[in-house]
Amino acid sequence: MTTATAAAAASSYKNRPIRQPYISNALDVAGRAGLAAIFLISGLSKLGQYAGTQGYMEAMGVPGALLPLVIVVEVLGGAAILAGAYTRWAAFVLAGFSVVSALIFHADFADQVQGIMFWKNIAIAGGFLGYLVHGTGAWSVDRQLRKV
């Protein structure tokens, strides 16, 4: 085997999709669970720290009256992603939410932590764009509804 042949074989191996449905579906669920956890935990913690969260929003120039909407978006959106229900819609909403919250709450690049939080939100939005484009796997409510 020549170096060129070995390089071509390695390249084709790296770029091929995972063909085992069980592994692919399990990874899809793991990805959804990771993204959903961020929003479920955040939304539920806002309920427990309602007054403090409302005050923080107002200090950042966002009306505190929007907090119930924020909680609903985070909790219902996270639950939808976790279940794989209305995945494309939920991914669209949460991607937009992530970008908007990055711009409003984390755009202070003089503060290293806020800069990291900004790019974390942008990365999360990128993850949601994958679900927006490709949908979800077989282990989801969306897929089960398509069978009916």
From TrEMBL:
UniProt lineage: Bacteria, Pseudomonadati, Pseudomonadota, Gammaproteobacteria, Nevskiales
Membrane topology: Multi-pass membrane protein
KW Membrane (keyword) present: yes
Protein's organism: Hydrocarboniphaga effusa AP103
Localization per Swiss-Prot or TrEMBL: Cell membrane
Family: Belongs to the DoxX family.
Protein's recorded name: Quinol oxidase subunit
Keywords: Cell membrane, Membrane, Transmembrane, Transmembrane helix
TM spans (from-to): 29-47, 59-83, 89-110, 122-141
One Gene Ontology CC term in the entry: plasma membrane
